[in-house]
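Task: sequence design from structure.
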């Protein structure tokens, strides 16, 4: 009789599967695609806004050699013509592309994941804003980071809170993660003064900044464009800044295209990590995106998107003013996808969700964006994906749910 020294089969999962925010992301994606729901949950463009005709034209006009190449593996660093196009695109934002290198990634979330893998061991400290983009929180948790959230106000991360946190820590944070332009979920944009104050603190303590700038081009008014200046574009800041961006909000999430701009030393390690993750980003979508940029289709498309999202934002705010009780307040975003509602401190957005989902309306609860998964007196509404014809009905239902919870 043969006996084994091993116990009967039980799955021995790694600690990397234990992200509490990963379950929030799964639920969020499910809610965002629910056909029968009025969804304010999805932080994504509406399907009717995609440049389908332009992409059709681009593909049909591609020469056969490029069509064949689009089915092939490509360089880990990215399709070279697209890298050049992104360089030109970032130069127009005054970003220091000559002193840094661009890595094309499979969405900007992969860029965040690569940087986390490059710098973070289990137990290392990462600083984030609170609230914070839930996708980034999931990545940080997956790699076992000790995440410390810093509160924000309408102008950005609160500097006094950041200083106090750094002072209280026994170890140096590996980096600070921030989304300064049209923040997800809070919808704010950092003031130029706050950006400079933040850089001063990071410089003093020699802390790296991971600057996530996925919504940079989606300002509503031309006068506010100056506010979108990336921190990495501020000369002589003295801070090591890794800059990430995405095509998800300006062409389509299905392209799965993002990029990072980083110093050569950081880039080299990042490229090695990416090679091990997926070898390369899809040549197919890179070739299409490159032609979209080279044939000057991006600029008019962005103009269309800005007008569309501005009108959606105005409609949503009109509905909020009409139906929401006075105890609820919200910001007025200057761009992006989101309106962040603040509730009375004793009210939980999860309780509101339980009521609204029964009537067919979903949103994202505040606790989803808290690094500790606890603070729940806010909620996020996205105006980018919801059908405009359903917007008023959805807010009316949501407001009734809020009033019911308030009365309990």
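Answer:
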């Amino acid at each position: 009789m043969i006996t084994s020294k091993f116990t009967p089969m039980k799955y021995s999962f790694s600690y990397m599967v234990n992200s509490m925010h990963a379950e929030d992301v799964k639920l969020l994606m499910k809610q965002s695609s629910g056909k029968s729901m009025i969804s304010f949950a999805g932080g994504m463009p509406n399907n009717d806004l995609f440049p389908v005709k332009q992409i059709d034209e681009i593909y049909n006009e591609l020469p056969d050699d490029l069509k064949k190449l689009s089915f092939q593996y490509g360089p880990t660093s990215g399709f070279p013509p697209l890298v050049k196009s992104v360089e030109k695109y970032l130069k127009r934002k005054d970003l220091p592309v000559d002193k840094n290198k661009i890595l094309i990634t499979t969405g900007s979330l992969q860029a965040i994941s690569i940087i986390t893998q490059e710098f973070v061991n289990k137990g290392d400290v990462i600083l984030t804003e609170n609230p914070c983009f839930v996708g980034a929180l999931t990545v940080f948790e997956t790699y076992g980071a000790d995440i410390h959230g810093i509160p924000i106000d309408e102008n950005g991360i609160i500097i006094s809170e950041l200083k106090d946190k750094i002072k209280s820590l026994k170890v140096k944070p590996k980096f600070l993660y921030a989304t300064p332009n049209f923040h997800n979920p809070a919808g704010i944009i950092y003031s130029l003064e706050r950006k400079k104050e933040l850089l001063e603190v990071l410089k003093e303590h020699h802390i790296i900044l991971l600057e996530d700038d996925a919504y940079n081009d989606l300002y509503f008014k031309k006068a506010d464009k100056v506010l979108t200046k990336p921190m990495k574009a501020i000369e002589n800041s003295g801070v090591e800044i890794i800059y990430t961006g995405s095509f998800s909000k300006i062409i389509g999430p299905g392209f799965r295209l993002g990029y990072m701009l980083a110093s050569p030393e950081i880039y080299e390690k990042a490229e090695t990590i990416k090679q091990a993750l997926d070898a390369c980003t899809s040549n197919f979508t890179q070739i299409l995106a490159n032609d979209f940029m080279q044939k000057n289709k991006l600029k008019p498309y962005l103009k269309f998107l800005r007008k569309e999202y501005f009108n959606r934002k105005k409609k949503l705010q009109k509905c909020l003013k009409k139906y929401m009780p006075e105890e609820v307040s919200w910001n007025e975003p200057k761009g992006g996808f989101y309106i962040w509602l603040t509730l009375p401190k004793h009210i939980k957005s999860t309780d509101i969700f339980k009521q609204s989902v029964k009537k067919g309306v979903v949103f994202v609860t505040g606790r989803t964006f808290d690094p500790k998964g606890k603070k729940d007196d806010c909620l996020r509404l996205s105006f980018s994906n919801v059908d405009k014809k359903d917007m008023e009905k959805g807010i009316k239902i949501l407001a009734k749910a809020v009033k019911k919870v308030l009365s309990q």
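DSSP finds 13 helices and 14 strands in the chain.
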